Amino acid sequence: MHIEVRSVSKSFGNHQAVSDVSFSINRGKLIGLLGPSGGGKSTLLRILAGLESPDKGDIYINGKRVNDIAPQHRGIGFVFQNYALFKHMNVFDNIAFGLTIRKAGKAQIKERVNELLDLTGLRGFEHRYPHELSGGQRQRVAFARALAPKPDLLLLDEPFAAIDAKVRKELRTWLKQLISTIGITSIFVTHDQDEAVEVADEMLIVQQGKLEQQGSPVSIYTDP
Ligand code: ADP
Ligand code: ADP
C-alpha cells in the first residue's frame, strides 16, 4: 500500500487545524506521528481514514482518492485511545464485528477470530465481556478487531494513552512485535516523544497543523 497526502488543509471555524501537509508512506513501516496536544494529529488521521474531508488537498491510497473508495473497501483499520469496544458483546463478537458486517460466513469468522486470539495473546478470553478485562487486554481486543478484516493500513490514535505506565511499556514491545509479524503499514499517533522514538521506524512531527519534520528517529534527534 502506498499512501500519498497532497497539500491537505483543514480549518474548524477560523482555526486552522491542519495546514498544507504533504507526505507519502511506503509499505510495511511503522510511522510515528508526534506532536503536542491540539497540533492536528487526530484531525490528520481522521482525514487519512476518510472520516473527515479536507478543505483543500487530497489523500491517495494506491493512486486512488480515499473519498472515491467506499469505506469498507479502503483497507483501513482504526484503534482509538479509549478502547471503543462494544460493551454488550464478548471478546469473540467484538473481534468478529468487522467480518459480520461484511457478511462473512460463520466458519470463516470462527477461523479468523481464532487466528486473532492467538496473534494477540487472547486465547481463553473469547467469552469475557469488556468490563471483565484489564485495560491492556481491552486494547489488545481493539487491535484484534481492527485487524480482523485484514486492512492494509492501521491507524492508531494514542492507543496506549489510557493505560498505566508499566503496562504501556509492555504494550509497546508487544505492538512492535505484532506489526513486524504481520508486516502492516501503521501510523501511530502520540504526544510522547519517548514512545515515538521507541516504537517508530520513521517519524512525522506535526506542530500547529504543520508538518515540521520527517525522518528516522535517529536523524531527527541528531539534527542540530
Ligand atoms: P491533536 O490530535 O494533535 O491533539 P486535533 O487534531 O485533535 O489535535 O486538534 C487540532 C485542533 O483542531 C485543536 O485546536 C482542536 O480543538 C481543533 N478541532 C479538532 N476537531 C475539531 C472539531 N470537530 N471542531 C472544532 N475544532 C476541532
Ligand atoms: P485528541 O485527544 O485525539 O486530541 P480530542 O479529545 O481533542 O482528541 O477530540 C476528540 C474528538 O472531539 C475528535 O473527534 C475531535 O475532532 C473533536 N474535537 C476536538 N476539539 C474539538 C473542538 N474544539 N470542538 C469540537 N470538536 C472537537
From TrEMBL:
Molecular function terms, GO-annotated: ATP binding
Keywords assigned by UniProt, alphabetized: ATP-binding, Nucleotide-binding, Sulfate transport, Translocase, Transport
Keyword Translocase: yes
Entry keyword annotation includes Nucleotide-binding: yes
Signal peptide bounds: none
Domain ABC transporter: 3-224
Name of the molecule in the record: ABC transporter ATP-binding protein
Organism in which the protein naturally occurs: Paenibacillus solisilvae
Residues of the full protein shown: 1 to 224 of 354
